[in-house]
Amino acid sequence: MTGMTSGSRHAGGGTLFTEPFLVVSHRAGAAGPGVRDQHGRPLGTVAETDHGAFRKTLWALTGSARFRPNCFAVRDSGGSVVLKVRAHDSRFLVTRADGTPIGGIAPDGPDRFTLSAHGRPAGVLEHRRPREFSITDAAGREVARSAEGDGRDYVVEVFAQLTDPLASLVIAAALTLDTALRPG
Fold first, then answer.
1. Model pTM?
2. Which residues contact 27 (CB under 8 A, 6 or more apart)?
3. Of 166, 160, 174, the residue nearest 18 (C-alpha)
């Protein structure tokens, strides 16, 4: 976990929402990114949903936004869906597993996204380069940051125990934007 600070002030609780470090792996042959804690214990997965094999193949071959994945299921270590993220163009709607809206993620410049809930800004994600971003809360305090890890991995550090809706928006952004926005 090079390049990360030791600013986390909370102990891990063994879930996507309570661990201070999330190691996100994009391994060949995997259905989607896997997420582990800093000790390698599985915390969950992210899977592209609502797609047929043909559409996925077209996106991989052409890189066309027309075939880009548009729905992701964030699952916990037991396989239960905890969040759904649906993309439309470059905007993202984040919901609970039952479809209850949590908030949205929308572009606010070339490398910047606003996280919002209940019609109000909840935070900002600034995308620095692939797999490197910073997330601040509505007051401008940095609450999470990512850095390139080993190979196809990146590490997300969450600096404090967050509450909803910001916690869900941070997890959704940290685990799906890299996949949703990368070229084919």
1. 0.81
2. 34, 152
3. 160
- Return the CATH number of the domain spanning residue range 21-181: 2.40.160.200
Residue 19 exposure: Cα atoms within 13 Å on the Cβ side: 22
CA 153 to CA 170: how far, in whole Å? 18
Element (H, E) at 132: strand 132-137
Q: At 47, phi and psi to the nearest 5?
A: -125, 135
- The answer to whether residues 147 and 155 touch, using CB atoms and an 8 Å cutoff, is yes
Per-residue pLDDT of the chain (184 residues), as tens digits, is 333 334 434 556 889 999 999 999 876 555 567 999 999 999 999 988 865 555 556 556 655 555 455 789 999 999 999 999 998 777 899 999 999 999 999 999 888 999 999 999 999 999 887 778 999 999 999 999 998 877 778 999 999 889 999 999 999 998 887 666 554 4
Question: Of all helices (H) and strands (E), which one includes residue 57?
Answer: helix 53-62
- Contacts of 79-85 with C-beta under 8 Å, sequence gap 24+, read 82/16, 82/17, 82/44, 83/168, 83/171, 83/172, 84/49, 85/172, 85/176, 85/180
